[in-house]
Amino acid sequence: MAKKVAFVIKLSLGMLICIATSVMHVERGAAALIGVDFDNPGGSVPTNWNQYGGFGIPALASNLRDETGVTTVVDLAITRAGFQVGTTGTAANAGTVPTHTQSLTGLGGLTFARGSSPPSSMSFQWQSLIAGQVYDVWVFGLTDATSAARNRISITGSGAPVSFDQSLTTGNLWVNGQVGSGSSLTSFAVPITANTSGQIIIQVTPVSTGGAVGIAALGLREKLPVPGDFNSDTLVDSGDLAKWRGSFRQTGDSDADADGDSDGADFLIWQRQLGSSSALVLAVPEASGALLAALALLGTVTRWRHCLTNRHCGGRIWRTRLP
């Protein structure tokens, strides 16, 4: 009996090796970020970011371009209120600017609102988004010595608002709820689902009544699906394995390689991405000893039949049934 079990497991590993050699290098491209930098006219700005400042801040910024230079359908509605509103060219301290695939050098300057009559506030509404799509959102806070801004941010899409404060100090850039650093921009992202109207709304009010608010920039990027995240909870974990097992050879609900079914190739992608919460490029490695451990998660192979010639494997592959 022991020999028979060992033989079946060996054949199953061979089957996975065969699948692995036909699924090498599955790639997923990254969505391009849309950036809006509020700075005085003529100020520096990251490449292909949309710049607005001075008297040139519109009520509606239409067809924003992304950082690759492509014009999009995305719009941004902008509302500012306060006794005094304007922009300054205050530079952001270099140590508080995150790293990014495209340099963020030039990110700085800010639009501000201050005074209590009317109370200072800002509202930004991303429009023409895909309803129900998850987006990574960034709100960059900045202040100068005169404004002494302190921001209270609320971001609303489909679901409960995400709120945080930005306790700004002069020249130090805040990225969402924390002071910026040399970490990657992606690590600061807040995921927000666009509402049924295709909108994400950002409200900015002062932390203290009568205080000021200051925003340096905004960023938005469509969040792409994570390969292997079969239950769409943004994580690749045991829950996705359970979903795959229920879909295996039955439906395409656990289809990580976009071939319309749920099979061993999709399991390999799950195995490679296990523990991931985001992925832009996926390369599935050739099967190795690690697959034996992954195979244990699937349970014991319960039945095998005669082998068939398979031209992709250059030999023989055993047909098995997984539980």
Describe the secondary-structure layout:
Blueprint: H1 2-21, E1 34-38, E2 50-52, E3 60-61, E4 75-81, E5 84-88, E6 110-114, E7 121-127, E8 134-141, E9 151-156, E10 162-166, E11 174-175, E12 178-179, E13 190-193, E14 200-206, E15 213-222, H2 238-247, H3 264-273, H4 290-298, E16 303-310, E17 315-321
Parallel strand pairs: 1-2
Antiparallel strand pairs: 1-15, 3-4, 4-7, 5-6, 6-15, 7-14, 8-11, 8-13, 8-15, 9-10, 9-14, 11-12, 16-17
Describe this protein with a few key phrases.
nine-stranded mixed β-sheet; 323 residues; alpha+beta
Largest β-sheet summary: 9 strands, mixed
Number of contiguous helices: 4
Binned strand content? 25-35%
Helix content: 10-25%
Distance between the termini: 20 Å
Uncertain residue ranges: 1-29, 278-323
Look at the helices and sheets and give the structural class.
alpha+beta
What do the pLDDT scores average to? Answer: 80
Q: What is the H/E order?
A: HEEEEEEEEEEEEEEEHHHEE
Describe this structure in words.
With 323 residues, the chain is α+β, with helices and mostly antiparallel strands. It has 4 helices and 17 strands. Helices cover 15% and strands 29% of the residues.
Short description:
The chain is α+β, with helices and mostly antiparallel strands and 323 residues long. 15% of the residues lie in helices and 29% in strands.
